[in-house]
Design goal:
- With about 290 residues, this protein is an alpha+beta fold.
- The chain is built from 13 helices and 13 strands.
- The protein has helices at about 1-5, 15-20, 25-30, 55-60, 70-80, 130-135, 140-155, 160-170, 175-185, 195-210, 245-260, 270-275, 275-285, and strands at about 10-15, 35-40, 45, 70, 90-95, 100-105, 105-110, 120, 125, 215-220, 225-230, 235-240, 265-270.
- It has a four-stranded mixed sheet. It has a four-stranded mixed sheet with strand order 10-11-12-13, sandwiched between helices. It has a three-stranded antiparallel sheet with strand order 1-3-2.
- The longest helix has 13 residues, at about 140-155.
Length: about 290
């Protein structure tokens, strides 16, 4: 029992325990003794149970019934497309018909088109990234959907053509037009070198403002710059995230670029999302050229 639970983020179902040879009475004794803690209907955690354990919650949701796969916003969080919500109801999909129904802490969707649309992530059955994007398209905000698409492409979990192929299968489905509109914003953007969602969002903002698009993460004076325009000799660094944790390294890089004759500006990553006009003003003040027609 312990070995199985360890392989499943400390979760195990009653069905699995019975298959291991435990009797219903033996299971009940372990529950009464506090060795097993019910976390969902027919699903247990081996004590102790961690308070903040999204992977355990996701695994538990898929163990509630055979053929259950993590889906919708829960799948988006597991893939890294959206942030995990600690108090959220987990969402799953099972084969069948009918609208969504809640069972304890799990919202169960039904689908007749689940075959071929799921895989396994760290042992958890989950809808594919493209199916996940299609599932959440009508259920999250425009901003959240845009972020999910950006992250899916940036993390190399999917591609814009791949999402477009999915849309071809989902014509007429609720949310398909919204997802198509979101994806279309990425046409022609050099996403393949992006290291963060903020960089991808910056490309969107600059394109929509009519500026020439920068190069992403290329080496200048032997140091990698976030956004750069060779013609104007301008660099914009987007501060925040895993690539800007060392303030000393950032200062050293900036000194190297200035010594090489480049103008350097910095912008906090949160401002890219919350105050895009700051990026536009910063780039305009640096005399970055406009995009050619």
């Amino acid at each position: 029992m312990t070995r199985l639970a360890a392989a499943q983020f400390n979760r195990v179902s009653r069905t699995q325990l019975l298959a291991l040879g435990l009797t219903a009475r033996a299971i009940d004794r372990r529950i009464d003794a506090g060795r097993l803690v019910a976390v969902e209907q027919g699903v247990f955690a081996v004590a102790p149970v961690l308070d903040h354990d999204p992977w355990g919650r996701w695994m538990a949701a898929t163990l509630t019934a055979p053929g259950t796969v993590l889906s919708h916003t829960s799948a988006a969080a597991a893939w890294g497309l959206l942030s995990a919500q600690g108090d959220a109801v987990e969402t799953v999909t099972r084969t069948g018909n009918g609208g969504p129904r809640r069972h304890g802490g799990v919202l169960v969707h039904r689908s007749t088109r689940l075959s071929g649309d799921h895989e396994v992530l760290h042992g958890i059955p989950i809808t594919t990234v493209n199916r996940t994007l299609a599932d959440i398209a009508a259920r999250v905000s425009h901003r959240a959907l845009a972020r999910a698409v950006r992250e899916g492409v940036r993390l190399q979990l999917t591609t814009v053509p791949g999402i477009a192929d999915r849309l071809g299968r989902d014509r007429g489905r609720r949310g398909a037009r919204r997802l198509a509109s979101t994806v279309s914003r990425y046409a022609g953007l050099p996403l393949e070198r992006a290291r963060s969602g903020a960089e991808v969002r910056a490309l969107e903002i600059l394109r929509d403002a009519g500026f020439a698009l920068p190069r992403l993460n290329v080496r200048i004076a032997r140091e990698e710059a976030d956004l750069s325009w060779a013609r104007a000799r301008v660099i914009v660094e987007i501060d925040g995230g895993p690539f800007h944790l060392d303030v000393g390294a950032d200062a050293r890089k900036e000194a190297c670029w200035r010594a090489a004759g480049w103008a350097v500006s910095r912008l906090d990553a949160n401002a890219v999302y919350d105050a895009p006009d700051q990026l536009v003003a910063l780039v305009a003040a640096a005399n970055v050229p406009r995009a050619t027609p």
